[in-house]
Amino acid sequence: MYTVTINGANQQTEHDNVKNLLDKLELTQGRYAVEINGDLIPKSELSATRVTQNMVIEVVQAVGGG
Fold first, then answer.
1. Which CATH number do you get for residue 8?
2. Distances (CA, A) of 35 to 6, 41, 65, 66
3. 66 in any annotated domain
4. Domain count, the chain
5. pTM
6. CA distance 22 to 25
7. Residue 55 contacts residue 15 (beta carbons within 8 Å)
8. Which residues contact 52 (CB under 8 A, 6 or more apart)?
9. What is the CA radius of gyration of the chain?
10. What are phi and psi of 13, to 5 degrees?
């Protein structure tokens, strides 16, 4: 079990990669960007990025409008 911070909130997870974790939390809908520990991570690398203890993940959803 890992403790991670997602968008400022602590979460407990057993997921082994970031993509699975974000899918479960429904944060991969539409257009989004992911930053992990201060680094922007391409979506193509999320499945290969392992969840680690105390990882800090920020997910930003793009919203249309004017």
1. 3.10.20.30
2. 10, 6, 23, 25
3. no
4. 1
5. 0.89
6. 5
7. no
8. 2, 4
9. 12
10. -145, 150
Tokens of 30: 């539409």
What are 39's two structure tokens? 């680094």
Interatomic CA distance for residues 15 and 1, integer angstroms? 8
pLDDT score of 65: 72
What is the domain range of residue 28? 2-61
The answer to the question of residue 24 being in a domain is yes
Asked if the structure places residue 30 within a domain, the reply is yes
Q: State the 10-residue block means of pLDDT for the chain, 66 residues long.
A: 96 95 94 96 96 97 77
Per the CB < 8 A criterion, the answer to whether 33 and 60 are in contact is yes
